[in-house]
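Supplementary Methods. Inverse-folding protocol.

Structures were first reduced to a discrete structure-token string of length 126. This string, shown here, constituted the complete conditioning input.
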């Protein structure tokens, strides 16, 4: 399965490029996608066109979209291996929050100034 971002919607494609599902609005730019471990939800950064934006979570079956952090904050979301938490860049630090409601904010790593983070990954400790 491949995910493809377009200006209007997030599109999920089959292995040969056939369209499987699409969701989202027609006005906002979405990127930095990460699928939940069970594949039922997708966390992504949504830019509002004015440079502002935040992390959203969409339920793939109901297509219900919610802001992870009230006030639309965060970038670079990545799911924990158990699907209970999402790590994201907030200000000048990387935090984890509950995936269900964005609560229980925990600092993972802080930076003296805000940094651009390329790709984050969350793996289980072995």
């Amino acid at each position: 399965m491949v995910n493809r971002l377009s200006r209007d919607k997030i599109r999920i494609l089959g292995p040969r490029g056939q369209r499987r599902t699409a969701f989202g609005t027609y006005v906002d730019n979405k990127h930095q996608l990460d699928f939940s471990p069970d594949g039922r939800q997708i966390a992504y950064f949504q830019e509002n066109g004015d440079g502002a934006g935040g992390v959203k979570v969409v339920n793939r079956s109901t297509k219900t979209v919610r802001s992870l952090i009230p006030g639309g904050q965060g970038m670079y979301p990545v799911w924990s291996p158990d699907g209970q938490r999402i790590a994201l860049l907030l200000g000048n630090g990387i935090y984890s929050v509950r995936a269900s409601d964005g609560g229980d904010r925990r600092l993972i790593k802080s930076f003296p100034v805000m940094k651009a983070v390329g790709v984050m990954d969350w793996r289980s400790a072995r």
